[in-house]
C-alpha cells in the first residue's frame, strides 16, 4: 500500500505503455456499446457533448477533415502502439487519419506538406491536437476531464437524475482531476475533492472556495453517489464501497476499482485508457463552440 501511495503522490502523469493500449484499435465497437449502456451515448455523441456541440451536425463534418498523428521520440521516446491507437480512434470517429512516416519536427513538416488539417502529438508531459486551419489547440488533460465529467452527467441523466446540485467526489487533483473540478462546477455540481497529498488538496480548496476537501476517502465514498476517479492508483474503491446508486467515471490509469468492485460494477463504471480524451480533443479542435 505504501508503494501505491508513494506512486500516486509523485508529481507527473501516467505514461501509457504497449500492453494497456494494444487492444484499443480492435475495441472501439465494444467501447461504443459499453458507453451507451452507461450513458445512453456512444463515443462520438459523448465527445460531441463534451465539445459543447451537436453530434448530428458534427457527424456530417468529420469526414471532411484529415488528421495526422506525429510520433515523438523525445524524452522516454515512442510508445509502441500509441500513434496506432490514436489514429484508430480518429478513424472510428470518421476522420481520415494517418500516422506520419517521419517522427518529430520532420513529421510536422510532413503534416504541412500533405495539407492535413489537424495533427496530434504527445511527449512525456503534453499531448496536443493542433488544428492548422482554425488555430485551435486542445490539451489532452482538459479534453479527458471534460469527456469523463460529461460521461458522469450523461450517466446520471440516463437514470433520470441530474448532476446539477448533486455532490460529486473528485479523487486525485493532477492535471485531469483539477480540470474535472472546473467542468463539474460549470455543470452546477457540488464538488468534493480528495488527494493523498493533503497539502495540495488544501491549497487547491483554498484557491477554489466552492470545493470541499474531504479528509477521509472512505467516508466520502459512503455519502457521494457520483465519483470522478482521476487518481492513477489501483484498489482505492472496494466492492463494499461501490454502492448500487453509485456511478464511477474513471479517467485514471490504472483505474481505482478493486477486482471485486470491477466484477460487480457493470454499467456503473465508465473507463478507458485513451479513446474518450482523444475523441474530445478531435471534436473540440473542429468546433468553435466549446470555450
Ligand atoms: O502518455 C503520455 C504522457 N503521459 C502525456 C499524457 C498527457 N495527458 N505521452 C505519450 C507519449 C507518446 C510518445 N511520445 C509517442 O509514441 O509519440
Briefly say what this structure is.
With 291 residues, this protein is of the alpha/beta class. It is built from 13 helices and eleven strands.
3D structure, described in words:
It is built from 13 helices and 11 strands. By secondary structure, the chain is α/β, with parallel strands linked by helices. The chain has 2 domains: 18-139 and 275-286, Rossmann fold (3-Layer(aba) Sandwich), CATH 3.40.50; 143-271, 3-Layer(aba) Sandwich (Rossmann fold), CATH 3.40.50. It has a 6-stranded parallel sheet with strand order 8-7-6-9-10-11, sandwiched between helices. The protein is globular and about 55 Å long. Bound molecules: N~5~-D-ornithyl-L-ornithine. The site of N~5~-D-ornithyl-L-ornithine (2YH) has 16 residues, from helix 6 and helix 8.
> Which structural class best describes the helix and strand composition?
alpha/beta
Look at the structure and give the mean pLDDT.
94
Strand order of the largest sheet: 8-7-6-9-10-11
Main sheet summary: 6 strands, parallel
Give, in order, the helices and strands.
Answer: HHHHHEHEHEEEHEHEHEHEEHEH
Radius of gyration over all CA atoms, rounded: 18 Å
Cofactors, ions and other ligands in the entry: N~5~-D-ornithyl-L-ornithine
Amino acid at each position: 500500500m505504501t508503494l501505491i501511495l508513494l506512486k500516486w503522490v509523485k508529481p507527473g502523469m501516467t505514461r501509457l505503455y504497449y500492453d494497456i493500449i494494444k487492444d484499443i484499435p480492435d475495441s472501439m465497437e465494444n467501447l461504443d456499446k459499453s458507453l451507451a449502456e452507461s450513458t445512453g451515448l456512444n463515443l462520438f455523441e459523448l465527445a460531441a457533448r463534451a465539445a459543447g456541440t451537436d453530434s448530428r451536425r458534427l457527424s456530417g463534418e468529420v469526414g471532411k477533415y484529415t488528421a495526422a498523428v506525429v510520433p515523438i521520440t523525445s524524452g522516454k521516446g515512442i510508445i509502441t502502439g500509441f500513434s496506432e491507437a490514436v489514429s484508430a480512434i480518429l478513424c472510428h470517429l470518421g476522420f481520415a487519419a494517418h500516422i506520419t512516416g517521419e517522427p518529430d519536427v520532420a513529421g510536422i513538416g510532413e503534416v504541412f506538406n500533405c495539407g492535413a488539417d489537424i495533427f496530434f502529438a504527445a511527449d512525456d508531459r503534453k499531448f496536443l491536437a493542433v488544428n492548422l486551419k482554425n488555430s485551435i489547440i486542445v490539451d489532452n488533460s482538459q479534453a479527458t476531464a471534460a469527456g469523463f465529467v460529461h460521461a458522469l452527467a450523461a450517466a446520471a441523466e440516463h437514470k433520470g437524475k441530474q448532476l446539477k446540485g448533486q455532490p460529486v467526489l473528485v479523487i486525485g487533483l493532477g492535471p485531469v482531476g483539477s480540470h474535472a473540478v472546473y467542468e463539474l462546477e460549470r455543470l452546477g455540481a457540488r464538488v468534493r475533492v480528495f488527494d493523498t497529498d493533503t497539502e495540495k488538496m488544501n491549497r487547491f480548496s483554498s484557491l477554489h472556495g466552492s470545493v470541499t476537501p474531504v479528509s477521509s476517502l472512505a467516508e466520502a465514498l459512503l455519502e457521494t453517489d457520483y465519483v470522478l476517479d482521476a487518481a492513477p492508483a489501483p484498489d482505492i474503491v472496494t466492492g463494499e464501497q461501490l454502492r448500487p446508486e453509485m456511478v464511477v467515471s474513471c479517467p485514471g490509469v490504472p483505474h481505482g476499482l478493486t477486482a471485486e468492485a470491477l466484477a460487480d460494477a457493470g454499467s456503473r463504471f465508465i473507463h478507458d485508457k485513451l479513446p474518450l480524451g482523444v475523441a474530445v480533443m478531435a471534436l473540440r479542435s473542429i468546433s468553435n463552440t466549446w470555450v
